[in-house]
Amino acid sequence: MTAFLYPHETRTRRIVDISGIWKFRLDNNNEGRASGWKDGLTDTTLMAVPSSYNDITTEKALRDHCGDVWYETEFYVAEEWQMRDVFVRFGSATHRATVYVNGEEVVSHDGGYMPFAGKLNDVVQFGEKNKMVVVVNNELSHSTIPAGTIVKHANGTREIKPFFDFFNYAGIHRAVKLMALPTSRIEDITVLTDFDQDLGKVDYQISALGQGDVTVALLDEEGKTVATSEGNEGVLEIDNVKLWQPGNAYLYTLQASLSDDGQLIDQYPLEVGVRTVKVEGTKFLINNEPFYFKGFGKHEDSAIRGRGYDAALNLRDMELLEWIGANSIRTSHYPYSEEFMQLADRKGLVVINETPAVGQFDVMMNFMSAATGGQSQSNFFDRPDVQTQGMEAHKHAIAELFKRDKNHACVVMWALSNEPDTSQEASEPYFKEIFSYARELDPQHRPLTLVNFMMAPYGTCRAHQYVDVICLNRYYGWYMMGGLEMDNAGNMFAMELQGWSNEGKPIVITEYGADTMAGMHKLPSVQWSEEYQCEYLDQQHMAFDGCPAVVGEQMWNFADFQTWEGIMRVDGNKKGAFTRDRQPKMSAHHLKRRWDKIDSFGYK
Ligand code: GCB
C-alpha cells in the first residue's frame, strides 16, 4: 500500500527527489539479466529521468528498441533515517521494471502507469553512497495490458507491434523519490462525500500501521478547521459546505494525524472535494444536476520527452482546456500522472479515468480495420492466454488504478477498456467478470464504462449491458463516408445514436475526429485541411444535438500525438484541435465558439 499514497512531505515525512540525469545502457543482445548488470553498468551513456528514452538520442536502435534497457544512479541515505522506514518510489516505469540496490532486488512491478515502491532499510548503507540499477522492459503480448505482439524480422531484429494507435513510449516516465517514513504511519485513506442542502459530509476510513491513535481535522482553503474527528473511521460534517463543482473546484484538506501518548508520529494531508456522482435514466448527474461533458480524449505526449512527466506541459494543457471552454477529459488510454490528477482536482476538470486496457483486438492498426467497417478477424477473447493471464493483468490494472485514484473528486467514471473487440461472443463472459470485479472495488461506486468501437455498432456489441454509460468512438465522415460523402455522415451517426438511445442510458461520444495538417487550407475543403476538420465537427455536433440521450462530446484528440510509423500516419496522429506544441488549429477556435455557449449544467 505504501506506494499508493502520494509522497507529500509533511512534518513527519521526508521526501527526496533523485530524478535527473542517470547512466543508461541499451540491452540490445538481451544479455544484462544473465550477465549481472544488476550489480553495476559498464559502457553507459546518459539518460534523463523522468522521460521516455525513445526520442532523446539520435539512435534508431534505441527509439524502436524491443526488450530491456538499464538505468543506474547513486544516492545517499541520510544517517538520521536509520530509525525510519526508507523506500524508493517510482511514479511509473513503462511497462515493467525491477529495481536493484547494491545488487539486491528491492521491487519488481508490472504495469506501466502506476507507482511502486521498494523498501531499502536492509540493503542500503546509511550515510554512504548506494548504487541503484533499474531494468525496464517494454514488450507487449496478447496478455499484457496494453496488448500487442512482437514480430521477428529476417535480420533477427525484433519489433513491437502494438495493437493501438500511439507510440509505445517506454522508460522511467515519472519522478523517482526516496521516502523516509515513520515506522508507525498512516497507510491508506478512503473518503466518500455527500451533502444535504448546506450540510456536507465526508466519510473517512484510515488504515494505520503500528501503534497510535488517529485524529482527523478537515481544513478549508484558508486553513481554518471546519470539522474534527477521532478514530480510524468517522464522518466529518461541514456547515455551509462549498461543493466541488466542474470548473469551480473547492478543495478541503483532510489532515490525518497519528499520535502516541500525545506525541505526533505521522501526519498526512489529503485534498477532498465534496461532490456526488450518479447516473439516473439518461442523465449523468454531478451534485444532482445533469452534466454535459465537453472536452477531449488526451494523451501524455510531447516532443523529445515522449510520455515523460512535464509540469509545464500539464499546466499549459489546463490553460488551453479552460480557454476552449472544455470541462472534461478522458485519460485515454492509460492512467495519467498523479500530479495531473491533482491539477484536475484543483481546476475542477472532470475526468473519465481509463485503465491501460487498450488493444484488446488483435489486428494490426485496428483503427484502420474499424475504419473500413470490415468484418472482425479478431479472435482476441477466444485465446486462452487472454482469458487467464490477460484477465489477471486487466484486474490488476483496475485494482491499482482504483487504489491510486479512488479519492480524486475529479474522477467521475472509470473506463475499463478502450475499444475491445466486443463484437466477439467470448467478450461477453470476459467483461461480465471484469465488470463485477470492478464494481466491488470502488468505495464511491462511480459509474463504470467501456469505450465501444465502430466494429461493434448498435445491435452487435456483446458487452454494453454491463456499462452504466454508453461511450462511443465514431468516425463517420473520416474513416468512413469521408470527402464528398461527409454531408451525409452526420445523418448516419444520428441513426446509430437513435438505436443506442433505446438502451435508456446516457451516451458520451468519447471520440470523433478528423486528421488535419495544421496550416493546410483548402477552399472548397478536402480531407486533412483545416476547413474540413471544422465542417466535420459541424456534422457531428448536429447529430449529438439531435439526440437527447447524448450527455457529452469529447473530440479526438486534444493535441496531435506520436504514433508508430506507417502508411496511415504522417509523423503521428494529426486529429488534434491543438498541434503537438500546443497551438490552436482553426478547429480549436471553432470548438471554443460552440463550447462557450454550452453550460456544464442544464444544457439539454
Ligand atoms: C480510435 C482509438 C484511438 C485512435 C483513433 C484514431 O478509435 O481509440 O486510439 O488514435 O481511433 O485516430 O484512429
From TrEMBL:
Query: Does the record bear Hydrolase in its keywords?
Result: yes
Q: Which UniProt keywords apply?
A: Glycosidase, Hydrolase
Q: Which GO terms describe its biological process?
A: carbohydrate metabolic process; glucuronoside catabolic process
The catalytic activity of this protein is classed by the Enzyme Commission as 3.2.1.31
In terms of SUPFAM superfamilies, this protein maps to:
(Trans)glycosidases (SSF51445), beta-Galactosidase/glucuronidase domain (SSF49303), Galactose-binding domain-like (SSF49785)
Annotated ranges, domain Glycoside hydrolase family 2 immunoglobulin-like beta-sandwich: 185-275
Domain Glycoside hydrolase family 2 catalytic span(s) in chain numbering? 277-598
InterPro entries in UniProt: Beta-gal/glucu_dom_sf, Galactose-bd-like_sf, GH, Glyco_hydro_2, Glyco_hydro_2_cat, Glyco_hydro_2_CS, Glyco_hydro_2_N, Ig-like_fold
The protein's GO terms of the molecular function aspect are: beta-glucuronidase activity; carbohydrate binding
**Boundaries of every Glycosyl hydrolases family 2 sugar binding domain copy:** 18-182
Enzyme class, one word? hydrolase
**Similarity section:** Belongs to the glycosyl hydrolase 2 family.
The entry's protein name is Beta-glucuronidase
What taxonomic lineage is listed for the species of origin? Bacteria, Pseudomonadati, Pseudomonadota, Gammaproteobacteria, Oceanospirillales
